[in-house]
Amino acid sequence: MAGHVNAFGVGMYLNFREAVESDITTLVALLADDELGAKREDLSVPLNHRYLDAFQSIDKDANNELTVVESNGDLVGMLQLTFIPYLTHTGSWRCLIEGVRIAKTHRGRAVGAKFINWAIDRARQRSCSIVQLTSDKQRPDALRFYQSLGFEATHEGFKLKI
């Protein structure tokens, strides 16, 4: 997975790699850098220990991958892949894409599309038959983006905060 380097555009090189612990502060800042994320993320210093606990749990789990994208050496995006075995669909595997963020400075430059297509290829490598994701209904640009990549809103999702 790590070390996958793509040339994209004039003078822009993208590198997709596994996140490391030293990335956490930057990742939390990416998560907080929008209207919804600003309400639910904690940018206090020192960083809330729950982020490190979550990172360590993800890092230890073979069915979870926290991936970042770098552009010319700068961390500009992130996503988490979770690989889930199912009895439905003839016992197939699914890939859940969550926590997708691209830095504001790199939106509209096809970095997100390249990253999502990389994630889909990763799901194929893991023999998944379905790639699924959720996006908040309050993010109409994100919804249009995922639809432009071929994702369809086939189900109604529900959440219960506990």
Our Rg estimate from Cα atoms comes to 16 Å
Task: Briefly note the structural class of the backbone.
Answer: alpha+beta
The H-and-E topology, N to C, reads as: EEHHHEEHEHEH
Q: Compute the number of helices.
A: 6
Contiguous uncertain segments of 5+ residues: none
Distance between the termini: 34 Å
| Overall number of strands | 6
Shape: globular
How much is the average pLDDT? Answer: 91
What does the main sheet amount to?
6 strands, mixed
Strand content: 25-35%
Percent in helix: 25-40%
Strand ordering within the main sheet = 1-2-3-4-5-6
What structural keywords apply?
162 residues; single chain; alpha+beta; six-stranded mixed beta sheet; globular
Question: What is the gist of this entry?
Answer:
The protein has 162 residues and is an alpha+beta fold. The protein contains 6 helices and 6 strands. The protein starts with a strand and ends in a 14-residue tail after the last helix.
